[in-house]
Amino acid sequence: MPHRYLIFNKPFNVLSQFTDTQATENSQPQRSTLKDFIPIPEVYPVGRLDHDSEGLMLLTSHGELQHHLSHPKFAHPRTYWVQVENIPTDAALNQLRQGGLSIQNYLTRPTQVDRLDGTPDIPPRIPPIRSRQQIPTAWIKITLTEGHNRQVRRMTAAVGFPTLRLIRISIAHILLNDLAPGEWRDLEPDELNPLLVSLNDRRDTSGSKSPRIIKPSNPNNNPRKE
User: Fold this and answer.
1) Contact 170, 78 (CB under 8 A)
2) If DSSP codes are grouped into helix, strand and coil, which group holds residue 164?
3) Cα 14 to chain center, whole Å?
4) C-alpha closest to that of 185 among 214, 213, 143, 219
5) In terms of DSSP bridges, do strands 54-60 and 163-171 run parallel, antiparallel, or are they unpaired?
6) DSSP assignment of 26-43, as one string?
7) What is the structure's pLDDT at 217?
8) Which helix (H) or strand (E) holds 65?
9) Is the peptide bond before 127 cis (omega within 30 degrees of 0)?
10) Is 13 left (phi over 0), alpha (psi -120 to 50) or beta?
11) 178, 182, 168: which is closest to 36 by C-alpha?
12) What percent of the chain is helix, strand and coil (3-state, nearest 5)?
């Protein structure tokens, strides 16, 4: 059976897994999971997003590619739009860029950070961010090549500007674009093939069989919302 490769726009307050194991173990009410949106069997997330984060997720049945994209040593970039409390100073943004922030038991790497002009063109969050009229907010764009637990939130808090909303907009060259929250679709060949080529390059020295490059076959690859 051919592997499946999906892109999904995870809404706020959805677990990035198919089963709420914590609720099952503790007899608590079930929380929303990927199963509520994606009716495809045997696909698994490439990495995770926190339940209170939003945006792009990749899912696949191809275990080796999942490992290749998830493992920190391969340093695939991931980009986020981040709404922070208050207006970040140049000094704070430079701290994020330079790296070396002590967060739990690690030091952050240098990071690409840009201040956005205004608010990105995105759907409102449901439920909305709590409004504090006397405190302004701002949006920044952060690109990481590492993926520690709640790293972006801890980084912005460490420089004095807590994260209010976090949306992942890209993984490597894969872009979220106009995929609506809760929608998913199969990757197009021009999105998938660079991932397979990257995996091929890593496997060349091992003599393993290379993944098949995918040819365009579905011009009407419309997003789905279940």
Assistant:
1) yes
2) strand
3) 13
4) 219
5) parallel
6) HTPPPPP-GGGT---TT-
7) 46
8) helix 63-70
9) yes
10) left
11) 182
12) 25, 25, 50
What is this structure's pTM?
0.88
**Weakly modelled stretches of the chain, pLDDT under 70:** 24, 72-74, 132-133, 203-222, 224-226
Count of CA atoms in the C-beta half-sphere (13 A) of 61: 8
Write out the two tokens for 226: 């279940």
- Helix (H/G/I), strand (E/B), else coil: 64: helix
Q: Is 149 helix (H, G, I), strand (E, B) or coil?
A: coil
Max CA-CA distance within the chain? 62
Q: Which residues of 16-38 are buried (b: 16+ CB within 10 A; e: fewer)?
A: bebebeeeeeeeeeeebbbeebb
DSSP class per residue in 74-142: G---EEEEEEEES---HHHHHHHHH---EETTEEPPP-EEEE-SS--S-PPPSSPPPP-TTS-EEEEEE
Q: Spell out the domains of the chain, with CATH numbers in brackets.
A: 1-75+172-226 (3.30.70.580), 77-169 (3.30.70.1560)
Q: CA torsion sign, 202 to 188 to 67 to 81?
A: positive
- Which positions are catalytic? 50
CA separation (Å) from 66 to 13, 76, 158, 168, 195? 23, 12, 31, 18, 10
